[in-house]
Amino acid sequence: MRNSLRAVRRRAAGVRAIVPIQGESRATIRSGEAAILQHRERLKAKLRRGSLALEASRARYLDLFENAPVGYFSLSEPGLITAVNLTAVSMLGVPRGKLLSHPLVRFIVPEDADTHDLHRKRLLETQGPQSYDVGFVRSDGMTLHTHVVATVSPSLDGAGAIRVAVMDISAQRRAELARADLQAQLLRAQKMEAVGQLAWGIAHDFNNILAAAILQLNMLRRGPELPREALDQVHQELLEAMNRAAALTKRLLLFSRRQVMRFAPLDAARLVDEPLKLLERLLGAEIQVALETSSEPLWLEGDAGMLQQVVTMLCLNARDAMPNGGRLSLSLTPLSLGAEAAQRHPSAKPGSYVCLRVADTGSGMDPSLLQHMFEPFFTTKPQGKGTGLGLATVHGIVAKHGGWIEIESHVGQGSTFTVLLPRVPARPRADLAPAPKTTPRGSERVLVVEDEVALRRMAVMCFRQLGYEVVEASNGVDALKVWETEAGRFDLLFSDMVMPKGVSGLELSSRLRASKPSLKVIIVSGYSAEMVGDDRTFGQDVKFLPKPYDFSTLAAAVRECLDRHS
């Protein structure tokens, strides 16, 4: 506008210079001047309107910038904050003056600082947008979970500047944690329901075992009155009964585990066979059970307890579909999926799989129900007969193992659940190693620590039968006194895991090995190895021995531990 005014003035001045005033009518001159003035005023008005529009646009931009739903930062190439909006100030609870000219990384939680710096460097190198999640430290000390999108845009001086948009995803993170907690609750609820269904069957089995054991012990007390063959038979049957009780307890402990999943190589055949033994009585005599396994070994990577729950829940689901009895068929087969075949399911990928099929001859389901089968709390059972958590739990466990489930069902013709899990190369079976021909013996000094009196007495008796010199203690505190009295002259610590008076087997082991690093240790427990750790957790000179153990297992474990790196 100013340039236009200057041009008009120059033209007017030129007119005055070319045309002598004396030759013109003064009225004409005044009219021309008035027209020029009017034009100038119009130009000024247009300039004012432009300025007002510019100010309004700037105000709208500032309002959008300051009050945007996400926080905005402008950074210099070294990462210093050059501009920040009110949303970011509010999100962090830090005044603008304490943000400007400071590195943005200063306000990011320490564990995410490297992530931010890495993406900032990538942004400057590639000029491509960077997207990542980091946590910011609020002024009240709380962590703000955010999703960050960083871009490069030219600044007014032509230098590169980093624009950072920060979105608060704390609510989303809380929802994810709540969802994970709900899934854990669903799993626990279903587990409790399954344990409740198993309780009467387990009680029945234990009563049978105990009844037989009581009679067998009564017979042993009449030893002199019985022939040798009868005594041998009683001994053998008593041992078998106790082994059945131990196996049953082991399966119950595995089923009732609450800790996070621990993946390990698993033999699929054993994985299915173990729950079937537990379910044999619960399924009832009206249901015929058939298991068909592949002639080739089938191995997968997974959590044994979780996958056994899958088998258990599918079998119980099949039982409920056959209230009047029927046939339950389980099969394990290998399956290879190509790229084309893998497209039939969103979770499928080409590769080798272990295929478990659980088929029943029950009532079957209408196709309209199948799409809801894995939804939590959805059930086709009458009210009070089911929670609708079983198949939802099964689906979650299988998905966590990288597999999926397919269902085929027809009303009146039964249902088939097909579980596919990634297959891994076969592993050697440790339990197939040949048993030693003779019981290994020794003469080393052993400190036996066990709070259960009867078990401690028998363990001490076994050690002495094997030739070892034994000193016993009833708990960890007494064991420390014995160690001091004996000046640590022991080759092996044989200790229970959980004991009274506040000193556990692991703590006792740690304290004794601190004074004698060469001490070998065997930790025994009625819990599973996953609950207390394994040899790799404790070290090369510490071994885990699960309860109950027999004489031969004890002898082999002690000799193996003592002979390690000795």
Notes on the protein architecture:
It is a single chain. The termini are far apart. The strands form 3 sheets. Strands 6, 7, 8, 9, 10, 11 and 12 form a 7-stranded mixed β-sheet that branches. Strands 2-1-5-4-3 form a 5-stranded antiparallel β-sheet, with helices on both faces. The protein has a 5-stranded parallel β-sheet with strand order 14-13-15-16-17, with helices on both faces. The chain has 17 helices and 17 strands. The protein is 48% helix and 21% strand. The chain has 566 residues and is α/β, with parallel strands linked by helices. Helix 8 (304-320) runs antiparallel to helix 11 (390-400). Helix 12 (453-465) links the parallel strand 13 and strand 14 (469-473). The chain folds into 4 domains: 2-66; 71-168, PAS domain (Beta-Lactamase); 179-424, Histidine kinase-like ATPase, C-terminal domain (Heat Shock Protein 90, 2-Layer Sandwich); 434-563, Rossmann fold.
